[in-house]
Design brief:
The complex is a heterodimer of chains A (about 200) and B (about 260).
Chain A (H helix, E strand, L loop, with lengths): L8 E6 L3 H11 L4 E6 L10 H12 L5 E5 L8 H9 L2 E2 L5 H6 L1 H10 L3 E4 L1 H13 L9 H6 L4 E6 L4 H13 L4 E5 L5 H8 L1
Parallel strand pairs in A: 1-2, 1-3, 3-4, 5-6, 6-7
Helix pairs in contact in A: 1-9, 2-3, 6-8
Chain B lengths: L14 H9 L8 H13 L3 H13 L4 H21 L5 H24 L6 E7 L7 H13 L1 E5 L6 H11 L3 E5 L8 H11 L7 E5 L5 H7 L3 E2 L3 H26 L1
Parallel strand pairs in B: 1-2, 1-3, 3-4, 4-5
Classes of the chains: A alpha/beta (about 200), B alpha/beta (about 260).
Chain lengths: ~200, ~260
């Protein structure tokens, strides 16, 4: 009897997770997982995320056995979940990628203890200058820093990989915001078990 | 978005020369309507100086401070709000526009008090507990203040106890709550449920706002309305105040 062919699974993911998903897939040999991403910059306009995810789901449905979505709620206020319910597609649990990297309970505790901290992941540490610094106009209007970040008291870098260059970039980001940095090594958190489960 | 007032200008002159044209606009030479429209453009571009100059010129022309606020500054910010919603403008541009509006308001604020501009009502506003985001809340406060509301801003990370104390102390018409995070928006229900428990809910109009919210959520938590942006917040607050006055008036007439 020939071995059972694994299901072809598509992951529709935020571009900010692409590197991590591919790394886990390679590490765990999850060859039946395919990935398509939406631009991470959509986070600057979360209201657009649900419709863009729906488009991807509908385009992919005829070609894959199963589809999963790798987004948190990401500021859509439940609208992404409403779309996923309609489409019958599951997503990884949690409000943000910070939560599934840090672990849901741990992240909730961190936020309850101190909501004044700005979070970075590997992706955000790497792209801080483009997405945050330039994206929020701080290169053109430095005085906006106090308006945008004046309520923050620190930066927490949730590190997926152990990479000195990324730590250096996180330090640079914190220094640009004139905030102290804390580095927390999370690894891939709940992302890896989720991918193993759905593969 | 500064408009070229001279339609005959050669469109091929290039950006630098266009900017030169903008600098040459003599605001004093403009009619009232053109000046107001120019102020909308300058607000849109986040230019503080011309907004202040335009405000001064309208004052010299004996405009009432309240009219300058509503017809030039608030209307200008309403246009900014529409283009933000439609993805044409982004957060930094909106903040620059808000800075220009603030500069104009700084000039008008003392005059509004002197001229007895109408007070439309009192609002206690704050970002809910666990949330420190206040850009939207501050824009809403500024626009509401400009429209004639008295604002008591409780800041960020506001607990239900602090809301209740402020409501007791200031006895506002409206309670405004803001949240940016999916994880903090449910706290609005905690506040509203506490008001219900204490039989205080009907004493206040409750308006909620914030990027992840929507009308459905607003209904689910028991708020009176969801405000999509600052301009909508102003219109919604005004509408509710009108209704409140109408109810009072009809109650008064039926008593007679």
């Amino acid at each position: 009897m020939p071995p059972k062919k694994p299901l072809e699974v598509l992951l529709i993911a935020c571009g900010a997770l692409a590197h991590e998903i591919l790394a886990i897939r390679k590490q765990k040999g999850l060859e039946n997982l395919h990935v398509t991403c939406l631009p991470a910059i959509l986070h600057n306009r979360p209201a657009l995320i649900p419709a863009r995810v729906r488009e991807k789901i509908r385009a992919a449905k005829p070609r894959y056995d199963k589809i999963y979505v790798l987004y948190g709620d990401c500021g859509t206020g439940g609208m992404l979940d409403a779309v996923l319910n309609e489409e019958g597609v599951e997503r990884i649990a949690g409000p943000h990628c910070y939560a599934f990297f840090a672990g849901q309970e741990n992240f909730t505790d961190m936020m309850e203890r101190d909501p004044t901290r700005f979070f970075l992941t590997d992706y955000l540490a790497r792209h801080f200058h483009t997405l945050i610094y330039k994206g929020y106009g701080l290169d053109r209007h430095p005085h906006l820093k106090d308006i945008l970040f004046g309520n923050y008291r620190g930066v927490v870098y949730l590190a997926q990989r152990e990479d000195a260059e990324l730590v250096r970039l996180a330090e640079r980001a914190a220094s640009m915001l004139e905030l102290p940095l804390e580095v927390v090594q999370t690894g891939y958190g709940e992302l890896a078990p989720f991918l193993e489960r759905v593969a | 978005m500064t408009e070229d007032k001279d339609n005959s200008q050669n469109q091929d002159q290039g950006q630098d020369q266009d900017q030169g044209q903008d600098e040459d606009i003599d605001l004093r030479a403009l009619s009232d309507q053109d000046l107001v429209e120019q102020m909308w453009d300058d607000l849109y571009d986040g230019l503080q100086e011309p907004v202040v100059e335009g405000t001064n010129i309208l004052l010299e022309r004996k405009w009432l401070p309240y009219d300058i606020l509503t017809k030039s500054l608030i209307e200008g910010m309403r246009i900014v709000g529409i283009d933000f919603r439609d993805g044409i403008l982004f957060v930094p541009e909106v903040l620059m526009s808000a800075g220009a509006m603030k500069a104009g308001m700084k000039l008008l604020r003392p005059l509004l008090a002197e001229t007895g501009a109408p007070s439309l009502g009192k609002i206690v506003i704050g970002t809910v507990k666990g949330d420190i985001h206040d850009i939207g809340k501050n824009l809403v406060s500024m626009m509401l203040e400009g429209a004639g509301f008295e604002i008591i801003d409780l800041g960020v990370n506001v607990s239900v106890e602090t809301y209740l104390e402020a409501l007791e102390e200031h006895k506002p018409d409206i309670l405004g709550m803001s949240a940016l995070l999916t994880t903090t928006m449910p706290y609005m229900k905690v506040v509203i449920d506490t008001l219900k428990e204490k039989n205080l809910r009907d004493n206040y109009i409750v308006l909620v706002g914030g990027a992840p919210l929507n009308e459905e959520f607003s209904k689910a938590v028991g708020a009176d309305s969801y405000c999509r942006d600052a301009a909508v917040a102003v219109e919604t607050a005004k509408d509710f105040m009108k209704r409140k006055h109408n109810i009072k008036a009809s109650a008064g007439s039926s008593a007679i």
